[in-house]
Design the sequence.
């Protein structure tokens, strides 16, 4: 059901990153596709099933990437898509959602407020609410990344996964635990948006009042209980990283790998930078999950200073 | 014989580029691999055959990418690789060649001088001289890009190929003419390094005294006669583009596609920018063939001015 343009993405060693990181690093690249993130793996499943069941419309809340992906998947299937997003989301993500013919509604608040508004739209219009990380298709879509990692006959011992709502972490994590149980599954979240990580460590939902991170794609305040339940089963650890490390990760991926990434996609490198001893000598896969950046911000991040240490 | 990490590379529509270009644009991305260019498709063949025949060493001249690729392919097969390059080649290319355990010899001149020196090394050491574009394996390796384009059930009508020595143009061009003859094969070269393009138009080898372009990967002065013969059979056209257009192409690929490219990889976009009427309404594939850039130069190119017109 998933368009092949989103599957079998590049997986390769990036030796140029390794001297600065002290471990072997492979990249799973999810940005070389029409929506520049992994999210379409899930929305392709969602939209296929919706259309098969006769649906004509759907609505989702999005930090920007899910909305873009659902708009892409919906457009090619004749499904009317409404995306509710924060007006503070990166302008390029909002622009692309509109360019893909979705109806875009902005809320004057953050992603969790957009979730509330999307639910209200779904009730009012009587259409399907697509809930990222809660709807199993969004996790199953992300899980195909895990299948591809396992198919590659992994020589790696660790996979680093950006943690937001939890679709990618639970999807990929589930596959690793089932098919490659020796691989350590480590989720990475910004210190400025730590709700799910804190929840994982305390084994109960912990919410925060606000978020404060450049990693807009993973900035949630209210973990979904069912997703936390799954994450408790499949994640071996969840770590928090500083903003400076995320920026260093963005810069290192440009300087040494020639990759443009959005902040969420640099969380894995940030985690290595902050835990050199833990990863020393290991072979780590980091999933580069998106590249939708506002250019002004991106130029600030890459221009601020030479690559340093956190 | 080719390591799968270099095969089945991403091919996808990039709608965000299209409003500025006036045509449909798909990208064939050859940068998401361990050597960040398409060259390893060929060196994998070269090195496999050499090792099968009992060779222990090889030497090549390189503008930087072939040397990196041959070093990678040789290292994993226990083949001693010597690369001769211009000392004016991008520092990052030279650094990566050394990092991949090749012996690097620098000449105080350009690529064509490096070719002469590599031939002398081969004679002196009695080892195989790998000649990019002349050795059929280098063209066959590049031709696998064409096979993947054809396998994708192409909806495109034009393929734009960076033209340097001619390995990619003849390899991909041959496949297109054989298997998708309706697709127009257009080679693109910088005005500052026009020897092969002029040769193609005049149907005889034309050399130049010097080159003057940022597109270091395609900057040759002396076309190889046998390669020109092949190019005359498989190319539908060869066009020259200005430096300003190459820089605009680099910038557009960053701004709208989130891709870091070296100048040679922006030649296709440059060609569209300079020939809008010709490509209007068409569906063009451009092969993004490499991303090995010196960061200082790259920052100059992307920072110079907002995306404009040539």
Sequence:
């Amino acid at each position: 059901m998933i368009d092949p343009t989103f599957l079998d993405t590049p997986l390769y060693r990036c030796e140029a990153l390794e001297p600065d990181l002290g471990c072997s690093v492979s990249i799973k690249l999810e940005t070389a596709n029409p929506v520049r993130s992994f999210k379409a793996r899930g929305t392709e499943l969602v939209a296929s099933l919706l259309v098969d069941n006769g649906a004509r419309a759907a609505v989702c809340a999005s930090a920007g990437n899910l909305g873009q992906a659902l708009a892409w998947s919906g457009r090619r299937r004749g499904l009317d898509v409404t995306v509710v997003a924060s007006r503070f989301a990166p302008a390029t993500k909002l622009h692309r959602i509109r360019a893909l013919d979705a109806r875009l509604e902005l809320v004057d608040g953050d992603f969790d407020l957009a979730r509330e508004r999307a639910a209200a739209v779904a009730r009012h219009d009587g259409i399907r609410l697509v809930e990222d990380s809660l709807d199993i298709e969004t996790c199953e879509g992300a899980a195909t990344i895990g299948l591809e990692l396992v198919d590659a006959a992994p020589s790696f011992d660790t996979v680093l996964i950006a943690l937001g709502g939890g679709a990618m972490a639970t999807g990929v994590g589930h596959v690793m635990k089932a098919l490659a149980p020796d691989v350590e599954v480590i989720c990475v979240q910004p210190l400025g948006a730590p709700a799910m990580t804190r929840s994982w460590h305390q084994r109960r939902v912990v919410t925060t009042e606000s978020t404060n991170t450049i990693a807009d794609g993973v900035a949630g305040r209210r973990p979904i209980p069912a997703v936390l339940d799954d994450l408790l089963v499949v994640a071996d650890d969840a770590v928090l990283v500083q903003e400076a490390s995320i920026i260093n990760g963005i810069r290192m991926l440009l300087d040494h790998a020639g990759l443009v990434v959005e902040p969420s996609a640099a969380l894995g490198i940030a985690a290595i930078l902050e835990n050199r001893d833990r990863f020393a000598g290991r072979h780590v896969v980091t999933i580069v999950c998106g590249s939708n950046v506002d250019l002004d911000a991106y130029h600030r991040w890459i221009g601020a200073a030479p690559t340093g240490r956190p």
Remarks:
- Residues 37 and 290 of chain A are 4 Å apart (CA to CA).
- The longest strand of chain A covers residues 80-86.
- Chain A touches chain B through 31 residues (CB under 8 Å).
